[in-house]
Amino acid sequence: MARFCTVLCIAFLSFSLFVSGVFSASFTFTNNCGYTVWPGLLSGAGTSPLETTGFALNQGESRTIMAPQSWSGRFWGRTLCTTDPTTGKFTCGTGDCGSGTMECSGSGATPPATLAEFTLDGSGGMDFYDVSLVDGYNLPLLVVPQGGSGTCSATGCLVDLNSACPSSLKVILDSSTEGSESVACKSACEAFDTPEYCCSGEYGNPNTCKPSSYSQFFKNACPRAYSYAYDDATSTFTCTDASYTITFCPSTTSEKSSGGGYPEAATVPLVNNTMVFSGADQVSSASHALPRVSQHGSLLTILAFSVLSLLRLL
């Protein structure tokens, strides 16, 4: 009996270490919007897929997704999604991934969409992350590291920009109950498709591609988010051994219910340097974050020892 208990304890320890080694970080998605959001998840080339590529997140709900070591990819929120009762096809008014189902299955967001981008366990073992408006904007989003070490700054875009969006960038959805209501805000590249706005051709380097009046609109509203392709200096952040919360509508700017209405434009100021990130340092050092394992060597050693012990006991 004693031998059996010992074997069981060693097996449990091995399993626990294996699980902690396989998963590098957790991403907790929270929907503070007054309507349903359908997160989309896309893994980068050559990285392991996550447990899902898309799901529904009702108002007030949260869901945690585990990511493996060295994972990279992006997340975004889809809005105004419906399933055709005749064909069964699933489509979204903004952020649609074109898969025809709730799962995006390897497809990215159709612009415009607010993006949260991550590379885990990158150079120097650090995570690199950002919130990008390079492909435009569709809803407020905030990323906050949990329990990591290093700078670990929060980043994102608190403000609902849809009503304030320049008329030449506005996306008006035909099915909008308000008729002329803007549901998303295009990037200048998406709207005009010119090399100077898309940082392509002769403008394909940071020396020739400069901020435009349109990218400055996004930057003034969301100072820590990418506003154009070469906005790295103020928009890329790092943290080590952290997990992350991704919050849609981090401040509740909508009074509309989830019954099909789109969020109203925010009444908060456009420049939000302190408002979005106040208290971020305290939040990022929260003690309840899941532990991270960044090296495999010690894990393999302990597993090997456990296997040998099991063989001897058996």
Automatic annotation (TrEMBL):
Q: Name the InterPro entries on file.
A: Osmotin/thaumatin-like_sf, Thaumatin, Thaumatin_CS
Q: Which UniProt keywords apply?
A: Signal
- Cleavable signal peptide: 1-24
Is-annotated flag, keyword rRNA processing?
no
- Where on the tree of life does the source sit, at the highest rank? Eukaryota
Instruction: Return the PROSITE patterns for the record.
Output: THAUMATIN_1, THAUMATIN_2
Specify the protein name: Thaumatin-like protein 1
The species this protein was found in:
Rhynchospora breviuscula
